[in-house]
Amino acid sequence: MKAKAVKIADGVYWVGVIHWHSRTFHGYGIPGTTYNAYLVFGEEKTVLIDNVYRGMFEQFDARVKDAFEQEGKEFKIDVFVQNHSEMDHSTFLRQTIEEYNPDAEIYASQNCINFLEAQYHNFSDLEINAVATGDELDIGGRTLKFISAPMLHWPDSMFTLLAEEGILFSNDAFGQHVAHSKRFDEDYDTQYLLREAQKYYANLVTLGSPMLRMKLDELTNTGLINDIKMIAPCHGQIWKNPAPIVEKYSEWGSGVCKDKITVIYDTMHHSTEKLAYQIAEGIMSEGVEVVMYFMQEDGPDDVITDILDSKAIALGAPTMMNKPFPRIGNMMYWLDCVNFKGTGSEKNALIFSSKGWGGGAVAKLQNDLEAAGFTVTDTLDVLFVPDEDVMAEAFEKGAELARSIKE
C-alpha cells in the first residue's frame, strides 16, 4: 500500500490512519475517525509517538516510511513514546518495535506499562522506561517533555510536549471522531469541529472533568499553557489554533452551561409524547432553548452531548409492568456512566410519565437520576391520556423548570 505522511511542522509528520467506514466507537455513533500517530525527527533520534488500531497497519506503515523518504533519511526509529495503552492507539506497538527497531528506547507512564501487559500479555520482556511530569528526553536539538494526564481519559494517559515547537501530543484529550482528507482545524468550520469535540468530551471525558480542571490549572500555573502552539490529538483534526478547544475544555470541565434544557422521552401510545411536547412549549415560553430527543429514533450519545451544556433536563417514559418503559434504560445507564456532577454542574430534572393504573416509572427514574447526579425538582405522573387540564399543568411545569435555571 502507498500512503503519504503529512508534514505538520519542520521534521514532524502525521503518520496516522483514516478509518473512513467506522460507524461506532466506545458504543456511540460516529461518521468515521482517525487514529493519529506522529513521527518526530531530532538531530540524534527519531521518535514515533503512539500507534494505530487493528486492521490499519498497512496504511500506517506506508505513511511512516513515506515520512522518512520526505526527510531523505535512512529508515530507523530510535524511540517509541506511548501516551496511552488503549487498543486503538497500541494494537501494533509490539509489531512495530520488532520490525522497526527491537533495540529502540520505549517510554510510557507506569500505568501504561502495566496496562499494555494486561491487554496483550507480551510486553513484560521489554525494557520500558516509566516517565511522569517533569521527565524530559533530548532527541538532539529537540526536547520531549512528558506530562502525566490521568483520567484524560484513562488512568495511564499522558501528554508529550515537543518543547521547541510547542506541539502538544495530547492523545485522546482534545480529539474528535471525524474522518476527513485534510488534517488541520483550519481546513474545516470551527463550530462544526467544536460540536464534534463536544460529543467526544461528553461521552468520553466527562468522568475525568475533575482531573481536567487540575491539569489545566497545572499547565497554567507552570506557564506551559502559553508554550502550546499546536495540539495534535490521537483522533480527528490537529488544532493549529488551540485556543478555541482549550477554552471549550475549560468550560465543559467546569460545568459552564447555556440557558438550555434537553427534553428526552420515549412513548408507547403517544401520551408521554404529548407531555414532552407540552413541557417543551412551557420551557420555550420562558425564552429558554430546548433540544428534544425521542429514544425510539435517537441515540444516547447525541443526548449526552446536549446535556453537557444544558442546565436541566426533562425526562419522560411511560410505565410498563410497574417500571419505566425499557427502551429508556440504555439512556439511564449512559447518564450514570458519565455522571455530569463531576463537571461541577448542578443540573435540575423534571420527570414525567403516563401510566395505565399503578404506575412505578417515576419513582425508578427519580432514583436513577439522583444516583447519576441530577437534582429532581418536580415530577408529573399522568393516568392514561392527558386531558386539557393535564396539558396545561405540563406546560406550567415546563415553564417552572425554565425559570429554575435562570434563578
TrEMBL record:
Keywords of the record, alphabetical order, are: Oxidoreductase
- Keyword presence, Acyltransferase: no
Q: Name one Pfam family in it.
A: Flavodoxin_1
Q: Give the EC number(s) listed in the UniProt record.
A: 1.-.-.-
Q: Where does the UniProt annotation place the signal sequence? A: none
List the GO molecular function terms: electron transfer activity; FMN binding; metal ion binding; oxidoreductase activity
Question: Where in this chain does the record put each Flavodoxin-like domain?
Answer: 261-402
Cross-referenced SMART domains = Lactamase_B
The keyword Oxidoreductase belongs to this UniProt entry's keyword annotation: yes
Which InterPro entries does the record match to this protein?
Answer: Flavodoxin/NO_synth, Flavoprotein-like_sf, Metallo-B-lactamas, ODP_dom, RibonucZ/Hydroxyglut_hydro, Rubredoxin-O_OxRdtase
Give the protein name, as stated in the record.
Answer: Nitric oxide reductase
Q: Which organism is it from?
A: Methanobrevibacter thaueri
